[in-house]
Amino acid sequence: MLVDIVTIFPGFFASPLATGLLGKAGERGLVEVRLHDLRDWATDRHRSVDDAPFGGGAGMVMVPGPWFDALDELEAQGPARVVLLAPDGRRFDHKVAQRLAAEPRLILCCGRYEGIDERVRTRVDEVLSIGDFVLAGGETAALVVLEAVARLVPGVMGNADSVTDESFAAGLLEYPQYTRPAVYRGLEVPAVLRSGDHGAVARWRRDQALDRTRRLRPDLLEQAEEDADGPQAPG
Ligand code: JBK
Q1: Which residue has a Cα nearest atom 1 of ligand 1?
Q2: Over the stretch 208-227, which tens digit does the pLDDT of each residue have?
Q3: Which atom belonging to ligand 1 lies closest to the Cα atom of 135?
Q4: What is the torsion angle, in degrees rounded to the nearest 10, for the CA atoms of residue 156, residue 160, residue 164 and residue 168?
Q5: pTM for this entry
Q6: For residue 31, which of 158, 163, 154, 161 has the smallest C-alpha distance?
Q7: Integer Cα distance of 170 and 6 in angstroms
Q8: Taking the CB of the first residue and of the last residue of the chain, which one, N or C, has fewer CB atoms within 10 A?
Q9: Hey, is 53 helix, strand or coil?
């Protein structure tokens, strides 16, 4: 997978891209990330990318020119799904990550300042939000999307089971995990996990995952039921 990131802070991504799973995926050529400084498409000598909003008001708005020119140039290199990170986007989740992981190429657009000129949206395929909170810009959101997507790209995760096994793939929270020591400060590991009975362990884990999801995230269970049932007639 190829990922182009357009940002006014390309340096923001240096450490995350060099570290851990994303670092490995890059080294192995499984996820190639190219960083682009939006200011490279600015046309004035100050390389400015923002201006005051029409109609007045506080703050600055990113001007359309550099975005249009950047996307012209990047899209001329070949097809890509263009994603804008913004608080009014569709909520990013595991399902969206799975869909994006199947794309050969993504262009992630990170806005800054108070917003981007509305006309830039005519150039994006999809607007995504990572949640209802205010960020300084789309960079952190792009990083969240990139990490969640990259680990679903075939070959990125060492053990193939660890992706399909995990919680959100099944629409459930994870069961509790324990490691040595069996008793720590009087706190015991559940006996079933030390029983050697693989069937009993599997049943206990499934029950725990279900209990936990029912208690902490009932919305996930309702979603899982809807997904399993398929679209229902209203009423
Ligand atoms: C937020 O993706 N987001 O969630 C996002 C992107 C850019 C700015 C923001 O405040 N929430």
Answers
A1: 87
A2: 999 999 999 999 999 878 87
A3: 10
A4: -40
A5: 0.94
A6: 154
A7: 33
A8: C
A9: coil
